[in-house]
Amino acid sequence: MKKIEMEKQAKAFGFATMKFMETKDLEFEHEFRQFCEMNDCGNYGNNYACPPLCGTPEEMEQKVRKYEHALVFQSRTPVQNIFDDAETKIIKKMHTNKTLHAVEELKEQGLPDNGMFIMCGPCNFCEECKAKAKEPCVNETMRFSCLSAYCIDAGKMAKHCNMNMEWNGDVVSFFSLYVF
Ligand code: SF4
């Protein structure tokens, strides 16, 4: 599988860009966990893929370090109001669905199928995560956590991948990874 071909496909999948990197170049900032603890998103303790249920920052980093390579997806989507959670949540979900679709397609082209997703938002396989009702997760093997839950420094990752981080409030950038 040629890297150049993968990058060309980004547009077809609806991404701004798609880049390969090595997981050794990802930077983990364990102190980012405090932002999850503030629970502005309401998912803290309410989603199995989110802190504290997903694991400690150290455990999360270890999960990623088991893999050598990462395919990083970036979307850049125009927004009416970047501070409107309802609007950005929909875009986040679209980005997640595009990532799931792209990886399925790329597996047909040789992308290893034993990888793991790191998404831009928490696991959303269920309408409402079973963690809320203290019921068991229904999709333990497939559930995905987000970059924040892994304490990945997304800014440094984007810089490493030479991705466009220009920001003037009318475009939102989301990232996801498939590590393999
Ligand atoms: S699969 Fe369902 S129950 Fe499991 S983490 Fe995802 S949303 Fe929660």
Automatic annotation (TrEMBL):
This is DUF2284 domain-containing protein. InterPro entries: DUF2284_metal-binding (IPR019271).
